[in-house]
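Example record

One chain of 177 residues, shown exactly as stored in the release files.
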Amino acid sequence: MRPEAFHPIARLLHWLMALLILAMLFIGVSMVVDLSPRHTLLLSLHKATGLALLVLVVLRITVRLALPHPPLPHNLPAPQRWAAGASHVLLYGLMLGMPLLGWGMLSAGGYPAPLGLPAIAPHDLQLYAVLRQAHGWAGYLLFATVQVHLAAALMHAWVRRDGVLRSMWPGPLRRTP
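Predicted structure tokens for this chain:
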């Protein structure tokens, strides 16, 4: 039997990560354009939040695979089902890949990783340049994917009114009449 809503742990992880990802996008942009003394603080905050997101996404993937989750509405057209699945794979891939690209970039640049973690890439400035560019482009892709995800959630809530957003809502679940 499939549940009507996501498990409370899955919902907590979803909304916590949503807040942290939005914060990361703004911190990342601010870091690039702000070279004032705040830059060091933003950089430290970016690294720590990225590491937290890496831990949270691994936990989230584990929860997603371990706990049953509600099915998509049965009347959702096949192309939208495919798009929902593909966008979730892309989101999970980006949520996992972004911190790993950042960690690899730090390693290749010879910079210390947060909490004294080991390097995951060899010290190589050409690799650093490639990873830095990949991290930046992945950030743009993540931002765009989050916008599409939000638009789809709002479409389910306001147009289709099919309970998809309600199934992930952080508060108490209310039945629709």
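Notes: The two ends are 22 Å apart (CA to CA).
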